[in-house]
């Protein structure tokens, strides 16, 4: 019983310390954003950061530094400088801390400070490793300094203790893919294979992204098909392949690709559906959209609600644009039956405009009564209704809409 109490006390203490530490990070982030630069050093030296901040350079520091850098790059630089100063004063011998600080330099594209951290590490008598040099390459790649990155690679290649790893090659493949250099990208891919490393997910992700950016769609498909037997693609790869197929407007291959994803029980996320729905809506391909809705519901019982909602609303937008009122009303009824409502008041307004264009005022009234149960009508929608009824000379309807607006407390001054 005593053991249980001691363990419980210990767990509670650890939990309390964890909550305090995360809370202090939030306060520190807020303070760092608000404090003038002249007070930054004081804040960073306070107990809220202290030495523990240097010893715990984890993912929360990634987000902290990135958010500060986006709005105040000088402050982000000061945070790195303070970390570097603490390492120097404390004669730090933990190589992992230097690695993390180099990694953070790469997050804000600061290769110069990364090199200073690396030099300090060597001055402390710590030998580099392949992992640390990879982080240094990454920092230079993120800064756009490919010449120095390649120089570091040469250093690794000529060494005995820190040879290039599979990740080293992936970094350079990704670097040249992002810089739009297909020749160098493919050359580094071939060099990796020639060095005896196995292909991996990161390599294929960089290659496929690079091929799509460079509009080398055949190469992208080739790499995708090459990886499938041995490596499961992630959502980033699936999205980029879909982007390529949409760019080529290859409807047959898009269908085949989606069937393959479903057959292999891979994830179809919101980004992919947004891309697909946007593509089909732009070309007004309602049959393809209908097919996507049916096949997803048939083969995926755990389909994300937002995915279903986006497809339903995409269909409504296209039918409204085409003024196909019968199909439009069927689609709205089906959507509501599936428990899905309109995602945006703009979609509602597209439907309203379609009814106005067709002069179907009675059907519009039915539609409005139908959706009020599941959708809050926006002020802009009321304004659209007033304008539409006025154009049609239906002034009684105008008065009724204004009264409805008064009931929901929106006011009527801009409608008169």
Automatic annotation (TrEMBL):
Name used for this protein in its record: Uncharacterized protein
Gene source species: Cichorium intybus
Upper taxonomic lineage: Eukaryota, Viridiplantae, Streptophyta, Embryophyta, Tracheophyta
